[in-house]
TrEMBL record:
One of its GO terms (molecular function) is transaminase activity. It holds the Pfam family Aminotran_5. InterPro entries: Aminotrans_V_dom, PyrdxlP-dep_Trfase, PyrdxlP-dep_Trfase_major, PyrdxlP-dep_Trfase_small. Residues 55-276 form the Aminotransferase class V domain. This is Aminotransferase class V-fold PLP-dependent enzyme.
Amino acid sequence: MVTVLSPRPDLWSLDPAVVHLNHGSWGAVPRRTQEVLSALRAEAEANPMRWFRSVPERLTAARLELAAFLDADPAGFALVANASAGITAAFATVPISTGTRIVTTSHVYGASRYAAERVARARGAELYVVDLPMQADDDTVVALIEPALVGASALLVDHVSAATGAILPIARLVELAHDRDVPVIVDGAHAPALIDAPTGDGADFWTGNFHKWPAAPRATAGLVVAERWRTASYPLITSWSEYDERLPERFDMQGTQDYAAWIAAPESLRVLAELEWAVRRPQLTAMLEEGAALVAKALGTSVGELANPAPTLRLVELPSVIADAEPFKARFSREHQIEITLTGYEGRSYLRLSAHAYNTPECYRKLSVALPKVLA
Ligand SMILES: Cc1ncc(COP(=O)(O)O)c(C=O)c1O
């Protein structure tokens, strides 16, 4: 018998007067990790010299714990500030030659697309976007991407789509691309804590955020580099570790920065362990599915159907298209004390709902009452 785990909003410092239904965008850091982070910063300010002397050893310990959480080879795991930095570093390494194409899909995250566009502009290549229907299953995704790989110098693909919450078939896409000698960069921003051992599919580069689902302090992400690219891969900031032979150390020290977040990040992994994340995650999925169905019913719409949805993200279709999402979200937050995010796909607008350990069924119920009033 599996125990039904209780929600644990007490572990977070989130404003209890506000309903938080968008963990996916910026995460939320548990109190315990915040305390560790504050203590580290106090230590730095008590004696900056002693703090910076201690950073390399503590960074190594934190990096190894973060790599182990992903089940990644520690020799190919580097710390970066965010998924955007990981993708930019990957594009700085992969040879993109004139006249070739960088292939991506219609799921691509805007900022990651810009990274691809920048490199395409600089090298005289083109960005080629494969349209994937929202409900595409793995076979369809593979079949649609395959013909686009002719003349490609890189494939940029999401592990978990920010637009829809779909999980894409990375292992199959890597195999497909490698058969055609096309390197694969995986945008795994949402993957840590949602997909087990997410870096094991053989991509050339994989990057993912610890500051999303693992609830680590912001600016904590990992870049996993396949063996053949490790010597050629460099961090975006040139600093004293420039000539370090090993990839992880080359990325460790990037000038004078606030390294406290990286060192504090493993505390959030311990919080996840205490939350029995492996048992809790499917329970969050069940709560989210019920909540999303309730909101969809109240709106007279439906829950977005996906072949492989991520466990803690669900789309609910909105009755009409919302062209300018930011003012809508800000006004809804102000007037109803509920934080939500919206996405768009194939010309339709969706709510993208999250579930984390601090959410309760009541969060979705409140949304199901408030949102129809605004959209009526
Ligand atoms: C799929 C995807 N890629 C990249 C990013 C960028 O992450 P960051 O802002 O941490 O660089 C996000 C952020 O939401 C995302 O969802």
